Fold:
Amino acid sequence: KQEVTQIPAALSVPEGENLVLNCSFTDSAIYNLQWFRQDPGKGLTSLLLIQSSQREQTSGRLNASLDKSSGRSTLYIAASQPGDSATYLCAPSEYGNKLVFGAGTILRVKS
Amino acid sequence: DGGITQSPKYLFRKEGQNVTLSCEQNLNHDAMYWYRQDPGQGLRLIYYSQIVNDFQKGDIAEGYSVSREKKESFPLTVTSAQKNPTAFYLCASSLGKITDTQYFGPGTRLTVL
Structure:
């Protein structure tokens, strides 16, 4: 059964810092991996999707990498801003596009 | 204005009652999903449907039921058999291919009194 771990569980940084969020998964037989953002009490917003054949994806200040064989993905956020404060969730997909979620990393960017 | 809508935003239920959570999408997506989120935990899959009139159980289907009579609608019923139904429920949809992005609704917070 796929298990997803996200480290750190919480992170507090000053504005402007570059930061890395880590995600590890136990079963490398995935189809893709998505990173989401969740604001308190809200639904999820998709940030990046990496197909299993890809190594990385970029969108603005966000860059996600995937090392499928070692069961790892990282989300890199450049020049962090207070508006980046949220919970970040990683979710590799199984057959049928079923997502398996980690517990998330709570990010706080201080101004 | 395309997207996924869930209603109601907040729902209160007495023990022993069944309740139905609504999920509608106008994205013309084939696949729809229901997840449950508990505090401090990741989302867990309850049910999913890849096509109209067909659906499959996820990891925690016990005490829940669904229907998929229309492409745009995927209602979730939380039955009295669900032992701990208080949670945040999220609906999602995707085009249907195994590599597609899932898009999420705003969620329904269910509280059992």
In short: The mean pLDDT of chain B is 93. DSSP finds no helices and eleven strands in chain B. The interface with chain A takes residues 4, 6, 31, 33, 35, 40-45, 48, 50, 56, 58, 90, 92, 94, 96-107, 109 of chain B (CB under 8 Å). The two ends of chain B are 35 Å apart (CA to CA).
